[in-house]
Structure formats: C-alpha cells, structure tokens
Specification:
The protein has 725 residues and is α+β, with helices and mostly antiparallel strands. The protein folds into four domains: 15-329 and 460-525, no CATH class; 366-402, no CATH class; 542-595; 608-724. It has helices spanning 15-44, 50-58, 69-81, 99-118, 121-132, 189-195, 252-260, 334-352, 371-378, 413-430, 446-459, 461-485, 534-550, 552-558, 564-569, 576-607, 609-657, 663-724, and strands spanning 86-91, 134-143, 151-157, 164-166, 180-188, 217-220, 223-243, 249-251, 273-287, 292-297, 305-309, 313-316, 322-325, 359-360, 404-405, 490-495, 501-506, 523-528.
C-alpha cells in the first residue's frame, strides 16, 4: 500500500500495546476460534473424533461415520456458484458524479469481484460462514504485472479467519467501527530472515509461548515458523471543512488547492461556512513478538480487513458478561449427526456380531464321521440331504431330537428407526424440507422439488445476506480507493450488467474517456442478491410462459426484441451466449425482410389492373364529391342574391310611401341601393365565371377518367386473351 503525503515515522502504539490488543482479542474470541476449526473438522474430516474412536473400540463397536451434513454444504455452494450479485450505485443530493462515472464505478466493482471469484473468493467465503460461522476478507492493491506502473484494486480471503481479529468493542456488521483490526500469518524462518535480516529473533523460543495455546513461534515437523502480525489502527487528524454557496462541502486543504490552481475567468467560489472536523487515517504496524518491523500510514479510509458474519448472536452468561457466539449453519444439527452415527455404529456392530452357526444338534444325533455326510452341517451354501441319528445308539427306546436351526436374535427396531429418523430431523433442524414436500402416495412432483429447494435457500438466507453485507463493505472500500489509484491515463477492464468484459478508457486516454476524479464520499453502494439461482430461474421461465399463454399482449412482448433477452437471462443451456449475441443481428434481418415485403406489396399494387380500376373509381367518387360541393356553393350564392333583391324592393316601397317627408333620405338610400345592385351584379358575374371555369375543369377531368377506364378495359381484354392463348 502506498504511503500518504503526511508521513509519521513511528506508531502511536507501543509494542506492548500491540501485543496486549492481540491477546485481548484472542481471549475474547478463543471459543469462536475453537468452534470454527472443530466444526469444519466435524463436517469435512470425520464426525468421530479421536476420543470417541478410542471409546468405541473399547466397546467393540466400529468407529464408523455417517456424515450427512457435507451433502447440504455441497448443494448450497453449488447454488451460490450460479449466483451473481447485483451492484448498483447512487449519489447524494449534492453529488456531482456523472452517469458515465457511476456506470464505470459499477463495472469496475463487478470486475474486481469477478477476478476474485476466479480464485474461488465468494465460494470459499460462503463455505467458511456455513461451516465455521464467519470469514474475513481483505482488500489490497497490487501492480497489474511485474513490469507495470499501474496498480489495481483486488480482493481475497484471509489466510485463516482465526488468525484475524477485531476490536471486541466493534458492533457494526463489518466491524469497521472498532479502533483496530489485525491479521497474523506464518512465515518460514528462512524466508523471514531473508526479508528482515536485522530482526531480533534470538529471544524467540519455538514452543508454547504466552497467549494460552497461541504461539508466536512454533515448530511444525522439522520446520520453524514465526507469526508476523499486521495491525491496522485509526489515527484521527484535526482538519477543517468548508461549505460552498451551492451547499457542497470539502476539506479546506482541498479547497485551497483548487483555488491555487484555478484558471477560469469566473472567480473561484467563496467559502460560505467553515467548521472543525477530524479525518481518519488508517495506519499499519507490522511486528513480531520481539519487535516492531515496519510502520506506514496507508491510503485507506476504512479498515482493509472486512468481517463477514454467518449468523452470530450475543449471549449473556451468569457473570453478566456478554459474549459473541458465531454459529455455523449446521451448529444445531451436531447432536442429530452424533445420534445417527451411534445408530449406524450399533447397526454395524450387530452385523459384525451376527451368529454364524446355523444348526443346533445333539452329539448323539450327529451322523458318522464321513466328511461328505457332515458337509451339510458345515457348508450351507451347497444343497445336500441332512442326515442324523434318530434313535440313540446306547438305548433304542430313546428317540433323539432332530437338528434345529439357530434363531438369530433380531436387532432392536429402534436402532433402524433412529437411523432413518435422523435424515428427516436434519431437514427440520436446518429448515430444508425439499425431500419431504409434495409426497402423495410415495410420489414426489417436480414442482414440489422446486418449491422445497427454494425454501432451502430461504432457510440459509441469513448467511447469504451476511455475504451481501460483506460485499457491500468491500465495494465501499474499492470506491474510496478508485480516485487514489486509478488516476493514470490508461485503458481498464470493467464488467457490464450483462456480465460481459469490456475495456474503458479513463482520464483522457483515447476516445470516450471517463474521469476517475470524483468524490467517493458522495456515492452510496448497494449490493443485492440477483435472481440467479437455478431454481428461481426455472420458476421465472415457467411464470413467463404461463403469462404468455394467458395474455396474448404479454406473449407479443416477451417474444419481441425487448422481451426475449429477459427470457434468455433466466435460462441456462449450452450455446446460450452465442444465442444472445446473435439476437440483434436476427432482429435487424427480420426488420429488413419486413421492409422488403412491404415494398414488394406496393409494387404489385401499382401493376395490378384491379388496383388501378379501384383507384380510378376512388378518383371518380372524389370528382363527384367536389362537383356537389361547387353546386351547393352556387345555390347558396343565388339564395343570398335573391334575399338582397327582396330586401331592396321592400326598402324601395317604404321610401316611396314617405317621399314627401324624407326626400333627402330617399335619394341617399337610392344611391346606396344602386351601389348595392352594382356590387350584386358584379358578384353574380364572378360566380358565373367561376362556375363555368369549374364546369370546364370537371369536363376535362371526366374525359381523363373515361380515358383511364377505357385503358383499364383494354388491359383486362389483353390479359384475358393471353390467358386463353
């Protein structure tokens, strides 16, 4: 990890403080550490430990193990292998991150997690939580390759979760709210001396040392190992935060750098408000039992170690001390597994001690010493006639008892009942009912199997949700490191929402470049469980098919260019990727074919005599409608003229009756009437001219229509003659 600008040569924590923190954490979590290893050994190695094996051999019983729990683990890990988390980012109200930057950040997080999964990160983490109760993941940076100057952000599981520790006061799900965390890893003594030649290791003894059964130096076989600890601590630095007029805020030093490098004509924004604050720096101290080896201030804002929980609970003991119990998924099934083992061992013991004798015969009734005759008693696999002495040789009056078969003592039925009941009990304890659902007359339906598998997923959902919480914390750390390490001009690999690998340009490299200079504090990440379980996918396909049958509208959509990719996302078969890739070209070809068909239909319509005849008939109808409109307009004009003439006549009569009294008014009205009559005459002449013009136009159109009809008839006759020929 790169050093920050503000360097401090020595840690604020002394070696004594560091060792004491490790010891405190170890004592607090030692039961969880022991439970982690014992449970994983119980599931993956043997359900019968060494002490039980010795006790069984003393009782003469075989130390057999009838492990049923590992099968549940394998099935749940197989379901998770098809699960792809859904990554989404959002920003606060005052965030200024562009949509392209958010899309890039989402794609980069997906790519980091996908690269980690190539090293079995998610599967191993889920397995540790199911079988051990928890896991610890680590976010780190490393160069792209040995010859590169570009660093990438990476994720991996810790070497051993029980060699990692967190502040017992931490209460957040990821335990990032504590004051410290650490990881311990063993180094072979030779490799340690080559890396730290000045380290003082003479005082170390490779035997039992200090913390209970924890040893800082130990010997495995003939090789000595030293435990090296990386302790991450928080250091608070006083700083000032300024608020700008637009409501956004940033560190005062960052603001001063912006103002110093301001090149815009518009003046830099002024500070609206200012307050004191603190900035957290993550410091790493590397040490062994005898001395501190190294110290640095990292670029991390959060602890690089992420605690991933299984399903822990807090329990208060009789001394009112609260302890954290990290429970594996199979914690409650241990006793039932032991009961099944005891029943199976008793069953095997009964088979081993089964009486091999077949006949009970008195000595006097035994036949002669001839091996052929006695073979019927000793070799029961070969058919033979059994002979015996019916009458005693010593006393002819004594009749001997014939040979009787040996009666096998039956094994108690409770043994087999307990063995068989254990499987059903596992389902009740673990919340997995898939093998008992849908049973009707000893028949198990496919739908019942699917529903049961879905319920099994729901029973393990607390562990899956803990995985998603851990991934969310990992994504937050990645987002915080992106502006710090992805700051060069370069292409970088990302993964889109369709889980396809893409190359994007950043910070001005090439075209369509995206800047990584964004405020990671304004971004919020959310990782959810995508609908990627195979059972859920099958159910989704069946539901879509049922909707398509019941709704023709939905059927048209789901088989369209927009809906078919959704249907294929819920399917899994060989060649699915090629089918998805071929869909765009297929729909483009389909559109081109539809356009060609429409063009061919249009050309056929233009060359078809029947279509020409229909078009001619339509034009004739349009002509008749237009002619009718013109006639109606002429009729309305004539009525208007007649009304004006009648009104003028009425006015004339009124003027004549009042000639003596209103002579002057009459002359004026007469002049107005003459003007009106002249206007009416002119209007009639204009209407008459337009009418004649329209009639001439209609006559020409009519002649043209008749000519087209004659041509159509000629074409029909020519076509009929060709058919006759």
């Amino acid at each position: 990890m790169k050093h920050s600008k503000k360097k401090q040569k020595e840690s604020n924590w002394s070696l004594e403080d560091l060792l004491k923190s490790v010891e405190t954490t170890y004592r607090y979590d030692k039961d969880n550490y022991r439970r982690y290893h014992n449970m994983r050994k119980f599931i993956y190695y043997s359900t019968v430990d060494e002490k039980q094996e010795v006790a069984l051999r003393k009782l003469g019983k075989p130390p057999l193990s009838f492990n049923s729990l590992e099968a549940y683990v394998s099935r749940m890990r197989g379901e998770l292998a098809k699960h792809v988390p859904s990554v989404s980012l959002s920003q606060s109200a005052l965030g200024r991150t562009s949509a392209d930057q958010i899309e890039f950040a989402e794609g980069y997080i997906r790519n980091v997690l996908d690269d980690a999964n190539k090293e079995n990160f998610q599967n191993e983490s889920y397995d540790r939580c199911l079988t051990g109760g928890y896991n610890v993941a680590e976010v780190y940076t490393d160069y792209e390759n040995d010859d590169s100057f570009w660093q990438d952000i990476k994720v991996k599981n810790s070497y051993d979760p029980t060699l990692c520790g967190f502040d017992p006061a931490a209460r957040a799900p990821h335990k990032g709210d504590g004051d410290y965390c650490f990881k311990i890893y063993p180094m072979e003594i030779g490799a340690f001396k080559r890396k730290y030649p000045k380290a003082k290791i003479d005082e170390l003894t490779f035997s039992k040392t200090t913390i209970s059964n924890f040893s800082w130096a130990f010997r495995s076989g003939k090789t000595d190992f030293i435990l090296v600890c990386d302790m991450y601590t928080k250091q608070e630095i006083e700083t000032k935060v300024v608020q700008l007029p637009d409501g956004s805020s940033l560190d005062k030093e960052e603001y001063e750098d912006i103002v110093k490098n301001w090149n815009n004509v518009v003046p830099a924004p002024e500070v609206a408000d200012e307050r004191d604050s603190t900035k957290t720096i993550i410091c790493r101290t590397r040490f062994i039992q005898s001395e501190i080896l190294d110290y640095e201030e990292t670029d991390f804002t959060y602890f690089p170690l992420v605690y991933i929980d299984g399903n822990k609970v807090a329990i208060q003991n009789s001394n009112y001390e609260v302890s954290e119990i990290r429970r594996p998924y199979f914690w409650q099934a241990i006793s039932m597994q032991k009961l099944k083992d005891r029943a199976g061992q008793s069953w095997a013991h009964s088979l081993e001690n089964m009486v091999a004798h077949k006949w009970i015969v008195s000595l006097e009734a035994l036949p002669s010493e001839d091996p052929m005759i006695r073979s019927a008693y000793t070799n029961n696999q070969i058919p033979a006639v059994m002979l015996y002495h019916e009458i005693s040789k010593d006393n002819p009056n004594v009749r001997l008892t014939p040979p009787q078969p040996v009666q096998q003592a039956p094994m108690p039925p409770e043994v087999m009942q307990a063995f068989s009941y254990a499987e059903q009990s596992f389902q009740f304890i673990l919340g997995s009912y898939d093998s008992s659902l849908g049973i009707n007359d000893n028949q198990l339906s496919g739908t019942a199997i699917m529903e049961g598998a879905t319920q099994s997923n729901a029973a393990a959902m607390p562990y899956l949700m803990s995985q998603l919480q851990g991934l969310t914390r990992i994504a937050e750390i990645i987002i915080d490191l992106m502006p710090k390490y992805l700051k060069h001009k370069r292409p970088i690999e990302v993964m889109d929402k369709e889980n396809k690998k893409l190359s994007m340009n950043i910070n001005g490299f090439g075209s369509n470049s995206v800047s990584t200079n964004f405020d990671s504090r304004k971004l919020k990440v959310k990782i959810e469980a995508g609908v990627n379980f195979s059972i859920q996918q099958t159910k989704a396909v069946q539901q879509m098919q049922a909707l398509a049958v019941s709704s023709p509208l939905f059927a048209n959509f789901i088989y369209s260019e927009q809906g078919l990719p959704i249907l294929l996302d819920n399917m899994e078969f060989h060649g699915l990727d090629r089918l998805k890739a071929a869909l765009p070209a297929y729909f483009t070809q389909l559109k081109q074919q539809q356009q060609q068909q429409q063009q061919m239909m249009a050309q056929q319509a233009q060359s078809n005599p029947q279509m020409l005849k229909a078009k001619t008939a339509d034009k004739k109808v349009e002509f008749e409608i237009s002619n009718s409109k013109n006639n109606n307009a002429l009729h309305v004009a004539n009525i208007s003229v007649q009304n004006r003439i009648a009104q003028n006549e009425e006015n004339k009569i009124v003027s004549q009756t009042n000639a003596k009294t209103i002579d002057q008014h009459l002359k004026i009205q007469k002049q107005e009437i003459e003007k009106a009559n002249a206007s009416i005459d002119n209007a009639l002449k204009v209407i008459d001219v337009k009418h004649r013009h329209n009639m001439d136009k209609h006559k020409v159109i009519g002649e043209h229509v008749n000519n087209m009809l004659d041509n159509v008839d000629k074409l029909n006759k020519m076509g009929n003659n060709k058919e006759i020929e």
